[in-house]
Amino acid sequence: MRLDKNTYGTVLLVYAISAVLLFLLFRFVHIWWVVWPLALFILSVCVWQTAFHMVPNRVPAGSSTLVSAVADGKIVHIEKAYEKDFLKRECIMISIYMDFWDVHANFWPVTGQVEYSQYHPGEHFLAFKPKASEENEHTCTCIRTPEGKEVFFKQLAGGFARRIVCYAREGMDVVAGQQCGIIKFGSRIDIFLPLDAEIMVKLGDTVRACETVVARL
Fold first, then answer.
1. Do the domain assignments include residue 61?
2. I want to staple 207 with a disulfide (CB 3.0 to 4.6 A). Which of 84, 130, 162, 212 is the partner?
C-alpha cells in the first residue's frame, strides 16, 4: 500500500492540527481521565485519515470485457438511465456509494482508451441521493475498449467531499485495475454500461475496487 500522491498535503495538515491539539491538551488539561481518551481519539483520527487516503494493493479482475468496480463501497442503484453528457443514450447505471470508512482511491473499470474526460462543478448533496448524479460536482470519463464497447463513469462529490482527482486524459491508454484517481470523503461512483451488458452484482452488495466484477460486456 502507498499514500495517494494527491493527498500528502491533506494528511500532513491532519497531523499538524493533531500535534497542536495534543500539545494544548497535555499542557493545559491535568485531568487524566479527560486527557487520555481525548488523546486516543485524536491519534485514531490520524490513523483513520492515513488509511482513508491509502492506495491498496489489489489483484485486478477486470479486462476489456469484464468491468470491475471503480471504488470500494455498496451498490445503491442498478437501473436504466439516460446518459446525457457524452453517450447520449439509455444505459444501465450501477452506482457505488463510498462511506467514511471505505478506501477512496478509484481504479479504471476496463482496459481501453479514454475518449472523453470532463470536470463539472456543482452542488454537494449527500451522495446516496438520486439527484446527486446530475447536480453534484463530478468528473465524467468514457473508455472505449478494443472490442468497441464504451464504459462511462462519474466520480461524484458528496456532502463532505470537496476535491475530486481524476487522471484521465483524452487519448490515453488505460488498464483495468490501475489507479485512475481519488475522491476525498463520502462520495459515489456511477458506471454507465451498454444495455446488453450482463450485470454481475445486485442491489445492496458490498464491492471492492479492482477485485469485484460488476458486469460482463
1. no
2. 212
Q: Which residue, among 64, 92, 158, 155, has the nearest Cα to 118 in the 3D structure?
A: 155
Q: What is the pTM of this model?
A: 0.84
Dist CA 141 CA 75 (whole Å) = 20
* Residue-number span of the structural domain to which 36 is assigned: 2-55
Number of domains in the chain: 2
Q: Is 187 a catalytic residue?
A: yes
4, 53 Cβ separation under 8 angstroms: yes
Do residues 15 and 94 share a domain? no
Q: Is the domain of 40 the same as that of 129?
A: no
The verdict on 37 and 114 lying in the same domain is: no
Q: Is the confidence at residue 148, as pLDDT, over 60?
A: yes
Which of 35, 55, 75 marks a domain boundary?
55
User: 106: burial class by Cβ within 10 Å (0-12, 13-18, 19+)?
Assistant: buried
Grid coordinates standing for 66?
A: 469484464
For the chain, how big is the Rg over CA atoms in Å? 19
Q: Does 197 lie in the same domain as 98?
A: yes
How far is it, in rounded angstroms, from Cα 15 to Cα 71?
26
Q: How does pLDDT run across 159-174, given as a tens digit for each residue? A: 555 578 899 999 999 9
| Residue-level pLDDT at 127 | 53
In the set 63, 68, 95, 187, the catalytic residue is 187
